From TrEMBL:
Positions annotated as active site in the UniProt record: 73
Family: Belongs to the peroxiredoxin family. Prx6 subfamily.
Biological processes, Gene Ontology terms: cell redox homeostasis; cellular response to stress; hydrogen peroxide catabolic process; response to oxidative stress
Organism: Cyberlindnera jadinii (strain ATCC 18201 / CBS 1600 / BCRC 20928 / JCM 3617 / NBRC 0987 / NRRL Y-1542)
Keyword Oxidoreductase: yes
The keyword Transcription is annotated on this UniProt entry: no
Domain Thioredoxin: 31-195
GO cellular component: cytosol
Annotated CDD domains: PRX_1cys (cd03016)
The protein's name in its UniProt record: Mitochondrial peroxiredoxin (1-Cys Prx) with thioredoxin peroxidase activity
Keyword list, A-Z: Antioxidant, Oxidoreductase, Peroxidase, Redox-active center
PANTHER family xrefs: ALKYL HYDROPEROXIDE REDUCTASE C (PTHR10681:SF121), THIOREDOXIN PEROXIDASE (PTHR10681)
GO function terms (MF aspect): thioredoxin peroxidase activity
Length: 243
């Protein structure tokens, strides 16, 4: 197995030779909730993928990392990998990204497996974004990193995109490199989104599965009675029910 120092020196040489175009802010997609997630072709630890084809009819959690062999990211990838069965129950695929190569990612995975209690096998792909194309498409860099996209040190920030089967972006999170993510929160918002899509409800502050939900104001009391049965009207615009 290549040493980490050799992997990094090989990566640095590769980066110097993989620049394919100049990154300009005016060319960057404006991604909002409801935008179609940009498609791309890329190499990963599980082989080449076309992103939209890879998503298929699943939901997807797509998240980036500042670099391989970084402490916070190692704990994050381990936590998500340990919850893979929970995501699978919700028809959710996981995919990570770091702006380093596949060999580096594969070496890093061994560390992730070592430090994560109960994790025997890491089992979702990590994108090798050595040319920074995907980081640019999804704006996965901070202000200083964007200035360096065309040459210099670039570390992706901790971006998270929840993408539905129609390839629409449903939720985004952005964390600075110093702050670890909350895997339970990602599961919680997926539960909320899927319930809203299925039942036509919205969820209140701190909602978790099994708690009361809110009937949207666009639904009349008469229709709410037909659809949900009993409900609690706290205010004319705030009505709680169970699903």
């Amino acid at each position: 197995m290549l040493s980490r120092s050799l992997l990094r020196s090989t990566l640095s040489a590769a980066k110097a030779n993989t620049r394919v175009r100049t990154f300009k802010q005016e060319d960057q997609p404006r991604l909002r909730i409801g935008s179609t997630a940009p498609d791309f072709k890329v190499d990963t630890t599980e082989g080449p993928i076309e992103f939209h084809k890879w998503i298929g009819d699943s939901w997807t959690v797509f998240f980036s990392h500042p670099a391989d062999f970084t402490p916070v990211c190692t704990t994050e990838l381990g936590a998500f990998a340990a919850l893979k069965d929970e995501f699978s129950k919700r028809n959710v695929k996981l995919i990570g990204l770091s702006a380093e190569g596949v060999d580096s990612h594969k070496a890093w995975i061994k560390d992730i497996e070592d430090i994560t209690p109960g994790l025997k096998t890491f089992s979702f792909p990590i994108i090798a974004d050595t040319d920074r194309e995907v980081s640019f498409l999804y704006d996965m860099v901070d202000e200083e990193g964007f200035k360096n996209l065309n040459g210099g040190i670039v570390q992706t920030i901790r971006s998270v995109y929840v993408i539905d089967p129609s390839k629409k972006i449903r939720i985004t999170f952005t964390y600075p490199p110093s702050c670890g993510r909350n895997s339970a929160e990602v599961l919680r918002v997926i539960d909320a989104l899927q319930l809203a899509d299925k039942k036509g409800v919205v969820t209140p502050i701190d909602w978790t599965a099994g708690k009361d939900v809110i009937i949207p104001p666009t639904v009349s009391n008469e229709d709410a009675k037909k659809k949900f049965g009993e409900f609690d009207e706290v205010k004319p615009y705030l009505r709680y029910t169970k699903v």
